[in-house]
Structures are given as structure tokens and as C-alpha cells.
Amino acid sequence: MGSTKNDNLVLMGQIGAAHGIKGEVRIKSFTENPLDLAAYSPLLTNRANQTITIKKARLQKNMLVAVLEESKSRNDAEALNGTKLYVPRESLPQTEDEDEFYYTDLIGLKARTPDGEELGSVAAVQNYGAGDVLEIRPAKGPTDLYPFTKQSVPTINLAEGYLIIVPAVEVIVDDDEAFE
């Protein structure tokens, strides 16, 4: 099972460049503590019939450097570059309280305004470098992006399958007056 066609898989990391000549690889971990990624081993991948087993890992700057059972040489390590690492959602621990959740649990939630207007559903949680953003897919048209902050998204109700988004107030500037 290497396929990611199962919607119940959560992306946990991605293998990057080879490290050294003995088959070690760099891994970008998406876990809160990067070293925790090894605890989920063996990991499913986006490659057919391939799993990855982390034998040893150490933190180097913001990346893991790992010894993998599947990588014995630099050539093996180079061949794994770009491999995405997944675990089934049910393998992740339950969250402690109602204000804690996994981003994957937000996908598919209905998005509405405080007045009850339907905005669409959560298609993805993105981060382009300036913070997390919810991508909302309306019934028609292109997706909309909303900042994923407590101010913009004050309510998340996983049990009932919705979240509330407070859209930002639009400011309209008359172009003729803008630079007088």
C-alpha cells in the first residue's frame, strides 16, 4: 500500500535530499515535534507498494536526518527524494480538548457566516508563509481564502460539521481620490 487515494491518510512528512554516502536522508517532518515522526514508522508513501521504516533519526536544524531500512546507499537515498510520508488518521492520538484538532479534520466542514449564510465547505488548509489560511470552495465559482485566526474563525464545531467565518470588511477606495 503506497497509494494515497485513501482520504483517511494524513501527510506527516516528505523525504528530501540524500545526506552523506551511507543512505541517510533528510526528512521535512510535519509533526509538532519533528522527532515524533519516527514513532509512526512504518509510514505509508505516495509510491505504489512502498512503505518507509525509520530506524534512527536525529534533528539537524529544522530537518530530520534519518537512517531508513529501505535505504542502504546514497543511490537508494537519492531515489527516495520527494517521497511523501503518510499515516492513517486513526493512528493519530485523540486531541485533548475541543479547541484542539487536526487540520485534516477541517476538510469538508461547512463554512458559514455568523448570520448563517453558507460560504461553501473547507477544501484545504494552506500556509503560504504568512500564517494558515482556509480555502473555502463555494457551490459555484473559484475558491475563496480566509485567514485561519481566532478572530476570523471564532467557532469550529467538528461534531456538527461546520465552522463560522467572519469575513473581513471590504474597503472600497475611489481611484480618483486615492492619491490626491
TrEMBL record:
HAMAP family: Ribosome_mat_RimM. GO terms for biological process: ribosomal small subunit biogenesis; rRNA processing. The gene is rimM. Belongs to the RimM family. It is found in: Cytoplasm. The PRC barrel domain binds ribosomal protein uS19. This is Ribosome maturation factor RimM. Keywords: Chaperone, Cytoplasm, Ribosome biogenesis, rRNA processing. One of its GO terms (molecular function) is ribosome binding. Signal peptide: none annotated. Residues 12-90 form the RimM N-terminal domain. An accessory protein needed during the final step in the assembly of 30S ribosomal subunit, possibly for assembly of the head region. Essential for efficient processing of 16S rRNA. May be needed both before and after RbfA during the maturation of 16S rRNA. It has affinity for free ribosomal 30S subunits but not for 70S ribosomes. Residues 104-168 form the Ribosome maturation factor RimM PRC barrel domain. Its main location: cytoplasm. One of its GO terms (cellular component) is ribosome. It comes from the Bacteria. Binds ribosomal protein uS19.
